[in-house]
Design goal:
It is a single chain. This protein is of the alpha+beta class. The chain has one domain: 3-Layer(aba) Sandwich (Aminopeptidase). Helices cover 32% and strands 34% of the residues. It has four helices and seven strands. Strand 2 and strand 3 form a beta hairpin. Helix 1 crosses helix 2. The two termini are 28 Å apart. The model has no long low-confidence stretch (mean pLDDT 95).
Length: 164
């Protein structure tokens, strides 16, 4: 497996991975699948902002993806980013998430970012464990923030200070 910058050709796979979670999981609070056009606009916005979108390439396709997004448009947050990570359902438990998260943290450091935030739904135990194993600490918890798949879900906010 090789982690590399995403290309336009990866967008259908990125979208398919994301839409799997839209339809089956509270890992995202989106409830409608993203269209191909939406994903292209999303990708262009990331490129324009200089923030990375990375994919884990298994040699036969995209096994997962990770990106950084602006945390806020307010100037004092310019060195803080929000991280998102999604692994293909059939690739979970194979180190894809760890490789992607390590790579995106390296990209964040290279960009001069100081803090990376991750909002993780409380029932996503594997994602919580992954982030904690990579030095993220819980910074707060929002209770009953999203109602999806017939249940209320909490969001655990984790942060990683890159100077540590």
């Amino acid at each position: 497996m090789h982690v590399r910058p995403a290309a336009k050709a990866d967008l259908p796979a990125i979208n398919a991975i994301y839409n799997f979670y839209v339809e089956t999981s509270p890992a995202t609070f989106d409830i409608e699948p993203m269209t191909g056009r939406w994903r292209q606009d999303w990708f262009e916005a990331r490129k324009a902002s200089g923030l990375p979108v990375l994919v884990a390439d298994s040699g036969v396709g995209v096994a997962g993806w990770c990106c950084l997004s602006p945390w806020s448009s307010k100037g004092a947050y310019r060195t803080t980013a929000d991280e998102s990570i999604y692994v293909a359902d059939d690739q979970r438990g194979r180190g894809v998430g760890k490789a992607l998260l390590a790579a995106v943290l390296g990209e964040a450091r290279a960009l001069g970012l100081e803090v990376v935030m991750a909002g993780i739904v409380g029932c996503q135990e594997a994602s919580l464990a992954l982030h904690q194993s990579m030095g993220f600490v819980e910074a707060g918890r929002y209770r009953h923030m999203g109602f999806k798949l017939g249940e209320w879900h909490d969001v655990h906010w984790h942060q990683r200070h890159l100077w540590e």
